[in-house]
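Could you help me review a protein record that somebody else here produced? What it holds is a sequence and that sequence's fold in token form. I have pasted the whole thing underneath without changing anything:
=====
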Amino acid sequence: MTPELMEAGARRLEARQLHAQLGKTESGGRQAGFSRIAKAGEVDVTHGRILYLEDVSVSFDGFKAINKLSLDIAPGELRCIIGPNGAGKTTMMDIITGKTRPDEGTVFFGSTIDLLRYTEPEIAQLGIGRKFQKPTVFEQLTVFENLELALKTNKGDERGVWASMFFRLDSTQGDRLAEVLHTIHLADSVGAQAGNLSHGQKQWLEIGMLLMQDPKLLLLDEPVAGMTDEETERTAELFLSLKGKHSLMVVEHDMSFINTISDIVTVLCDGAVLAQGTLAQVQADERVIEVYLGR
């Protein structure tokens, strides 16, 4: 999400495009090959899935944090992930975003992009945005300046972080920023310093910063933790407005919030899928009751 990640990813993608123009693609000069995309920024979802994980495993000091995990998400889907502490939820997102490399298994973005071949900055540039539980915004800057700074780096744009702070928005970028401000419920706080926002507003601002990069898949870790009831309700409205335009994977413990936003809930336990279905279905599953919900 940071400008540094965007800048590094943009440079790598520009180099790949240049190689392709010269007929020196990594697939031997073909338009596209296994694990490669025909056009930069294009994700192949013709098979009806934007994210695939198959038989993924990873161990840390002998502990199997992820154990033969298989999971897939459809384009535009809002998937909720629940499970007890230590179930592997964060590690799964670490693997998807390139922070952690699995010991085995496959992870694909669409049907052609093998995420295990890319670095963390490159994966962010490909269109996967991640929000951690604690909001990370530039507190000394205004809401407007935070969103402006987060604008997706143009391919071939070599400006650094400081230069980014002084570039001028064109009309299209201005319209996009205004649209995001409205989406995240901060249009009335555009000039406010980010450090003075409430916890919930900071969460919305960080989501807005991700949206400025036009991600195809958003990974959101406990987004309503610490929010007031009103903020939680508005966050649910925000996520439902994003559904269909983006694919969302939401890790959360607030069952009321999950009930409001979810169609499908996946329950992780011991690094694997324990159950999956509607919230009502997984809440009625004896295995889920035993390991997570309690009686």
About this structure: The two ends are 40 Å apart (CA to CA). Residues 3-293 form a domain with the Rossmann fold fold (CATH 3.40.50.300). Residues 8-38, 153-159 have pLDDT under 50 and may be disordered.
